């Protein structure tokens, strides 16, 4: 039996691109509260900060940590802060915002959310209903943000050096006592060597098709990955002010998404071209 599915209402669609390419989707991990400054940090005058590397499409949002005594360990913060200071220096990522006094130790004072650019499959649109009209605006980029914990790698290396273990390799898991011991391998007898003879060899420098030498035997893909990493580390951060959703600047940006035009739009593409663009 067919169920009636009547049309409840018809909304006119308004399309605008006034803020293109500055509209992005930022996906955050599960949060138990809004992206705001913790109360203890807010009383100290701390703010959420943001910075961007436009060429690398890398975004970071720095949120002050919660320094309440029941959730904060000052000694652990000093240990993690020293690791982050070394990590920033190694990667040329120093913010320059935290200037330490003489004799003061660095502390982990903020959580850094680092973005990963997610390619679009098709056209992404931001839409909202205002006064009975559906307003649409194209979305230029999508980023997933996660906490960056690379400073833990620095502390791990430091811990290995203190134990005298400079190698990342190990001898594998311990043997299973229930398994039989492997049979000893018989030593091969050395074959008698013949008379020594003088030979002459020549080495020739080999080049690839592009005329560039394969440095160190690295593959082309690996070289490109290393070049991208170094290019990102060398790119300078651009600092931005973070504005919450209730600020005057955010309200002005939201109002700019409203279409002010009344002329009708006509579609110039067909369903075939649309399906090809999304495949």
Explain this structure to me?
- The protein is α+β, with helices and mostly antiparallel strands and 279 residues long.
- It is built from 6 helices and 9 strands.
- A hairpin with a 2-residue loop joins strand 6 (125-130) and strand 7 (133-138).
- Helix 2 (74-90) packs across helix 3.
Can you give me a brief rundown of this structure?
The chain is of the alpha+beta class. It has 6 helices and 9 strands, in the order ββαββαββββααβαα.
* Strand order, largest beta sheet: 2-8-5-4-3-9
| Radius of gyration, in angstroms, nearest whole number | 30 Å
Major sheet description: 6 strands, mixed
The helix-and-strand class reads alpha+beta
Name the poorly predicted regions: 169-174
Taken as a percent bin, the fraction of beta residues is 15-25%
CA-to-CA gap between the ends? 35 Å
Number of strands: 9
Shape: flat
For the residues shown, what is the average pLDDT?
Answer: 79
Put simply, the count of helices is 6
List the helices and strands and how they pair.
Elements: E1 13-15, E2 24-27, H1 39-43, E3 49-53, E4 58-64, H2 74-90, E5 110-118, E6 125-130, E7 133-138, E8 141-147, H3 151-162, H4 220-234, E9 238-241, H5 248-255, H6 271-278
Parallel strand pairs: 1-7, 2-8
Antiparallel strand pairs: 3-4, 3-9, 4-5, 5-8, 6-7
Helix pairs in contact: 2-3
């Amino acid at each position: 039996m067919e169920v009636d599915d009547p049309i409840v209402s018809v909304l006119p669609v308004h399309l605008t691109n006034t803020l293109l390419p500055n509209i992005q989707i930022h996906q955050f991990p599960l949060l138990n509260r809004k992206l705001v400054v913790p109360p203890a940090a807010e009383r100290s005058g701390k703010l959420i900060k943001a910075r961007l590397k436009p060429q690398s499409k890398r975004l970071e949002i720095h949120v002050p940590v919660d320094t309440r005594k029941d959730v904060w360990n000052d000694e652990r913060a000093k240990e993690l802060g020293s690791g982050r200071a070394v990590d920033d220096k190694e990667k040329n990522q120093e913010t320059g915002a935290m200037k330490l006094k003489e004799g003061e130790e660095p502390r982990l004072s903020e959580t850094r959310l680092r973005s990963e650019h997610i390619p679009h499959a098709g056209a992404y649109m931001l839409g909202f209903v205002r006064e009975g009209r559906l307003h649409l605006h194209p979305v230029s980029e999508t980023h997933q943000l996660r906490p960056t914990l690379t400073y833990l790698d620095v502390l791990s290396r430091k811990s290995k050096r203190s134990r005298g273990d400079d190698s990342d390799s190990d001898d594998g898991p311990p043997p299973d006592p229930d398994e039989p011991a492997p049979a000893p391998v018989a030593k091969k007898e050395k074959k008698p060597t013949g008379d020594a003879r003088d030979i002459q060899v020549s080495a020739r420098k080999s080049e690839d098709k592009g005329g560039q030498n394969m440095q160190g035997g690295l593959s082309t893909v690996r070289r490109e990955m290393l070049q991208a990493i170094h290019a990102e580390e060398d790119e300078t951060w651009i600092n931005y002010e973070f504005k919450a959703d209730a600020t005057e600047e955010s309200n002005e940006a939201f109002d700019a998404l409203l279409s002010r035009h009344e002329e009708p739009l006509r579609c110039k593409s067909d369903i075939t071209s649309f399906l090809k663009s999304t495949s």
